[in-house]
């Protein structure tokens, strides 16, 4: 399954356009991917997450509806890495593993997942072995990925619609501009 194959993002407008393309796209949940990613970002904002994580929430499921479920996280990470950097890319790439980690380390977590998310967890590798648990937990951004995961799970509410879309677009543009400025300074 490939729909709208994208090149790695070079600017915020490309990232936003890819997100907007997901209006009406479904991964089987009760809301479309556009609203799901906005809800995930909104949950992160409500949790007091910094802008980098809000952007990760906006873009974490760009692979859904475009590539195989088992590849969606790593594919999205590759799209965002050149523009948004390693931390945002790693967190996006790790959000499926964060689900596996939580299901492995918290016996109650499985029951909090939607039926679709339970099925995708199995296709994404199922429970982790002890080496995978240790490797995930050792990453300095593991807590960020776990926060994204929990907000991802909460971002599937058919009764709620994110209306302050410009806030999220401005956040995406601000983070992209900071990353581009950082790259420019590092090449001076």
Automatic annotation (TrEMBL):
SUPFAM superfamilies membership: HD-domain/PDEase-like
InterPro entries for the chain: HD/PDEase_dom (IPR003607), HD_domain (IPR006674), OP_Dioxygenase (IPR052567)
Record-linked Pfam families: HD
Domain (HD): residue spans on this chain: 34-100
PANTHER family: HD DOMAIN-CONTAINING PROTEIN (PTHR40202:SF1), PTHR40202
Name assigned to this protein: Phosphodiesterase
Annotated organism of origin: Ktedonospora formicarum
């Amino acid at each position: 399954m490939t729909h709208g194959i994208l090149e790695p993002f070079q600017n915020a407008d490309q990232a936003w356009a890819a997100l907007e393309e997901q209006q009406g796209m479904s991964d089987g949940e009760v809301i479309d991917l556009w609203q799901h990613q906005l809800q995930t970002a909104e949950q992160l904002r409500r949790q007091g997450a910094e802008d980098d994580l809000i952007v990760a929430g906006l873009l974490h499921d760009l692979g859904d509806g475009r590539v195989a479920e088992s590849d969606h996280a790593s594919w999205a990470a590759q799209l965002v890495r050149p523009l948004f950097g390693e931390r945002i890319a790693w967190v996006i790439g790790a959000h499926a593993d964060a689900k596996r980690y939580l299901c492995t380390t918290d016996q109650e977590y499985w029951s909090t997942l939607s039926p679709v998310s339970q099925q995708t967890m199995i296709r994404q590798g199922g429970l982790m072995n002890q080496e995978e648990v240790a490797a995930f937990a050792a990453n300095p951004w593991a807590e960020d990925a776990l926060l994204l995961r929990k907000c991802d799970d909460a971002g599937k509410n058919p009764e709620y619609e994110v209306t302050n879309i410009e806030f999220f677009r401005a956040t995406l543009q601000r983070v992209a501009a900071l990353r581009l400025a950082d790259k420019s300074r590092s090449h001076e």
